[in-house]
Amino acid sequence: MRRMEEVVGRARAAFKSGRSRPLEFRLQQLRNLERMVVEKEREILAAIGADLHKCGHNAYSHEIMGVLGELALAMEKLPSWAAPRPVKKNFLTLRDEAYIHPEPLGVVLVMGAWNYPFVLVVQPLIGAIAAGNAVVVKPSEVSEHTSQLIADILPQYLDRELYPVVTGGVPETTELLTQRFDHIIYTGSSAVGKIVMAAAAKHLTPVTLELGGKSPCYIDTDCDLAVACRRITWGKYMNCGQTCIAPDYILCHPSIQSQVVENIKATLREFYGEDVKKCPDYERIVNKRHFKRIMNLLEGQKIAYGGETDEASCFIAPTILTDVSAESKVMEEEIFGPVLPILSVRNVDEAIEFINHREKPLALYVFSNDKKVIKRVISETSSGGVTGNDVIMHFFLATLPFGGVGNSGMGAYHGKHSFDTFSHHRSCLIKDLKMESTNAVRYPPITEKKLGLAKFFLLKRFNKGRVGLLVLTLLGIVAAVVIKVSCS
Amino acid sequence: NPYAGLVSRLREAWLSRRTRSLEYRMAQLEALGRFLEEKKQDILQATALDMHKPNFEAYFSEILLCKNELNDTLNNLSHWMKDEHVDKNLVTQLDSAFIRKDPHGVVLIIAPWNYPIHLFFVPLIGAIAAGNCVVIKPSEIAKNTEKLVAEMLTCYLDSDCFAVVTAGVEETTRLLENKFDYIFFTGVPRVGRIVMSAAAKHLTPVTLELGGKNPCYVSNTCDVQNVARRVAWGRFFNAGQTCVAPDYILCSVEMQEKLMPALREAITEFYGPEPRNSPDFARIVGDKQFKRVRALLSSGRVAIGGQTDEKERYIAPTVLADVQPSDPVMQEEIFGPILPIVVVANMDEAIDFINARPRPLAIYAFSCDSKEVNQVLERTSSGGFCGNDTLMNVTLTSLPFGGVGNSGLGKYHGKFTFDTFSHHRGCLHRNMGLEAINSPRYPPYTQQKLGLMTATFEIKRKGMCTLL
């Protein structure tokens, strides 16, 4: 297993050479990455299709489009993101330079997931390259076609030493995690997230963990049910429910439960036709293990719609469960499949209490015509992110940080947040070697007079006005001159 | 689990939502201000007993800097708490998109002994400002300050939401078994690893403010007397027990010659001919630490100082010359009033020397030539950097304070403390109407729909004509 040590060692040596730092180099690599996505589009769509039975359109809109967007954003904004950021100064530092200097961290490890196997590896990669790092890319072995493709094409377009791809399963990943990295971003389950963080702790490596959980979806009685259910259906059953921010379960008043079911049924027919199994736009469960896991969750449940399965092709029809009990198996773990339980709550208070008694989810959804209800749910709960009156969509806005909280993860990325995550924000204060007199106040031996002057110069006042600031500045300059004269 | 009761009590208070309103947070912060004001003398006394901390130093770091941070937060909290609206793409133009600052929940602050008030107080300001409940664990090594904090702090704060725990190593290990929603730790890297491993079990995010050996490069072109004063001040403040103190000097053999008399003059100017008698010079905090630092004196050659007194835990402001990289004093963070000078041929050698070692909390570079200062900055990596002075980079509340690599992860001070203790939650509040805009995303998929999606979701490169 010395291979991991060699690969990471080479990446580190390449980083130390300094060549990943100049902006022009980073932009060149990003341009190459863009070329790769455009030139290899067919192969990428085919690989994703082979892994998840995903049609070309879906694969394009879920994975390629987002990546091209991030690339365009990073290439446009990189000079401004990477520039030193001046900060507000105080009296003593008025004549100095004070700024935050974004710098690369070093060697970043990107660990992808199998459900969106291309974008979940490439989107972090974009941010890590933009920030000037070397990046070790480890796609998920479960999505084996995409993983192999990435291993084949990335070295054809990017610097091979700086951005190596490592493939393999659990033993290889375990070995990889013993190496020292300067940041690790992992997308996957909470259980493995703990293992990743424990490995990182040995090297004091900062981590970004994009995990999961059960993302609740509350439907208020005051709501356009047809629209709400269409949006929920879209988000729940895309990628056959294998989406970390899919609405996991619905909370609603029992009186609207049957209407919700009818609306979702109608939408499903609209989306996938009468025979969903034949529809090219509907995906499959990624493998037999997950198929069996989801089947297990259906045990003892009241199936209001769907429930058809075919183990040979890992097909599970879009399924709705009603009158689900909070203690049932399907409510214990993230479903990550096309099964939608509906639970009854009497009002929004109960919904909020229900949500707050569980682990903090990655996403939270609330549908209501009443803005106040939406505001209340957001204010009285916690989650990685929120979309009100829709699902999934907060993921697509790059200006919003995307990440979890509590059990659903730590840290965030997308857009500028990626750049900031993969950078070290180094504070810099550059002073003058002259003007020593202003320093005299702080040197021993300490006298009452010095103490008084120190308080005057340094103490921030509560609620000072702008004019006060100007006056104090002028007084400060005068005092500096006075001290210089009295000390000489 | 001896602390389970305490943590669950705080968690219940947290669930009651009491800490959320701006008024509540401001009231608690103002109470913290009163603690500083009313207990000022007790703080000066306790820190004097703990490590003979000079009144001025204690006032500067434990009172004045804390007051600054507090006032900065009080002045800006309502602004920091507001939702931050973000730019939208075409498809979300009619929606509301913002970042909400949510508190984490019940957080733990573990503080060290060298600035025993400051290093729990400043994180505490941000933790309260962000709306959390807090468990504070002050250092058991600074015994008098620990006692003060345990007895007096909670009288000022809401004791349902804020608790002080006094604990040694064993008890702290038990404390860390509990689930917290954030852990803020200041201390040594070795313990930082232990804290992060414990946090990993609960997926608790952490900020680790650690340490290292902070190099101080002195170029040949500089005002020697000014350099000597600024470096001596930074090194001997708190008898060297400062995480951002200049740990060792890198300079040419000629500069070492020039610096020595200048340093001697600065030390005499600061502490008089007999520093032991100066009220402005501190002592080592404990016998164990005293013995450790004293052992480092057998490195290179004692050019200035070197006197010690075990009873008083006094080590004189000391400068060591002709120190080799393999000497004991160069193997660990000194954390004492000893300043080794390591000779290098030139700036490039100094930079290579620095880069061959773990990344420190701070790097200092002194030169009249700003290009040289810039070179050191550009070609090295550290938590923070200060050109032509020491320590001052951590007194500006607008600069983030934190380490990188072995010297730590995360940052705080000013708004960064508030941000550290908040979860930045991406929120998109969409329109329930205008469903037609969404139709391109729904199955059944067609080429036409894909084109529309691309047009509304995509971010285009500026200056690229779409007709092409």
TrEMBL record, chain A:
- Asked if Protein transport is a keyword of the record, the answer is no
Localization recorded for this chain is: Endoplasmic reticulum membrane; Microsome membrane
- Aldehyde dehydrogenase domain residues are 4-425
Record GO biological process: aldehyde metabolic process; fatty acid metabolic process
Q: Which residues cross the membrane?
A: 467-486
Per the record, the coiled-coil ranges are none
What keywords are assigned to this protein? Endoplasmic reticulum, Fatty acid metabolism, Lipid metabolism, Membrane, Microsome, NAD, Oxidoreductase, Phosphoprotein, Transmembrane, Transmembrane helix
Reactions catalysed:
a fatty aldehyde + NAD(+) + H2O = a fatty acid + NADH + 2 H(+); octanal + NAD(+) + H2O = octanoate + NADH + 2 H(+); heptanal + NAD(+) + H2O = heptanoate + NADH + 2 H(+); hexadecanoate + NADH + 2 H(+) = hexadecanal + NAD(+) + H2O
Mode of membrane association: Single-pass membrane protein
Q: Where does the secretion signal sit in this chain?
A: none
Gene3D superfamilies, per this entry? Aldehyde Dehydrogenase, Chain A, domain 1, Aldehyde Dehydrogenase, Chain A, domain 2
Name where it mostly resides: endoplasmic reticulum
Q: What is its EC number?
A: 1.2.1.3, 1.2.1.94
GO MF assignments: 3-chloroallyl aldehyde dehydrogenase activity; farnesal dehydrogenase (NAD+) activity
Enumerate the Pfam families for this protein.
Answer: Aldedh
Q: Which GO terms describe its cellular component?
A: endoplasmic reticulum membrane
Q: What class of enzyme is it?
A: oxidoreductase
Q: Which residues form the active site?
A: 210, 244
Q: Which family does it belong to?
A: Belongs to the aldehyde dehydrogenase family.
Describe, as the record does, how this protein assembles with itself and its partners: Homodimer.
Q: What is this protein called?
A: Aldehyde dehydrogenase family 3 member A2
Q: Which organism is it from?
A: Odontophorus gujanensis (marbled wood quail)
Please state the gene responsible for encoding this protein: Aldh3a2
TrEMBL record, chain B:
A Pfam family matched in the record = Aldedh
Alphabetically, the GO molecular function entries are:
3-chloroallyl aldehyde dehydrogenase activity; aldehyde dehydrogenase (NAD+) activity
GO cellular component annotations, sorted alphabetically?
cytoplasm
Q: Which UniProt keywords apply?
A: NAD, Oxidoreductase
Residues in domain Aldehyde dehydrogenase?
18-422
The record's listing under InterPro entries reads: Ald_DH/histidinol_DH, Ald_DH_C, Ald_DH_CS_CYS, Ald_DH_CS_GLU, Ald_DH_N, Aldehyde_DH_dom, Aldehyde_DH_NAD(P)
Please give the CDD domains that the UniProt record associates with this protein.
ALDH_F3AB
Q: Which GO terms describe its biological process?
A: aldehyde metabolic process
Recorded superkingdom: Eukaryota
Oxidoreductase listed as a keyword: yes
* Glycoprotein keyword on record: no
Query: What is the active site of this protein?
Result: 209, 243
Q: Which PROSITE patterns match?
A: ALDEHYDE_DEHYDR_CYS (PS00070), ALDEHYDE_DEHYDR_GLU (PS00687)
What PANTHER family has UniProt attached to this entry? Answer: ALDEHYDE DEHYDROGENASE, ALDEHYDE DEHYDROGENASE FAMILY 3 MEMBER B1
Which protein family is it in?
A: Belongs to the aldehyde dehydrogenase family.
- What's the protein name? AL3B1 dehydrogenase
The source organism is Odontophorus gujanensis
Q: What is the lineage of its organism?
A: Eukaryota, Metazoa, Chordata, Craniata, Vertebrata
Q: Which gene encodes it?
A: Aldh3b1_1
